[in-house]
Write a structure and sequence with these properties.
The protein is an alpha+beta fold. It contains four helices and four strands. 36% of the residues are buried.
Length: 112
């Protein structure tokens, strides 16, 4: 099992999740964070602290967010680890709750 970051993190990146994760299994892209499913210990600490309510236990993923399981797995292999909380993206408050944000996901890695 694992926990999964879903669409409402896109363009927000509040990073409160990073501050509470005991195993540092978050990885950071330009406008989204993902969880490495092999490292997550299913502790549930990140779910209540995310202001965007973007994190789910894999078993609780709504059908329309199941594709994020694959996205987290894939991008956590190429993005760098993030271990410290930082400021949210500048327009985080504006983007929180906007529907259909997947089209805004930037998948580039720091090298590309
Ligand atoms: Fe980290 Fe726990 Fe959240 Fe998994 S469930 S990402 S281990 S805080
Ligand atoms: Fe994203 Fe929520 Fe963490 S918005 S960066 S999953 S606190």
């Amino acid at each position: 099992m694992t926990y999964v970051v879903t669409d409402n993190c896109i363009q927000c990146k509040f990073t409160d999740c990073v501050a509470v994760c005991p195993v540092n299994c978050f990885y950071e892209g330009p406008n989204f964070l993902v969880i490495n499913p092999d490292e997550c210990i299913d502790c549930d600490a990140c779910v209540p602290v995310c202001p965007a309510k973007a994190i789910y236990n894999e078993d609780d993923l709504p059908d329309d967010k199941r594709l994020f399981l694959q996205i987290n797995e894939e991008l956590s292999r190429v993005w760098p680890q993030i271990t410290d909380q930082k400021d949210p993206l500048p327009d985080a408050a504006k983007w929180d709750g906007v529907a259909d944000k997947l089209k805004h996901l930037i998948r580039t890695t720091p090298e590309s």
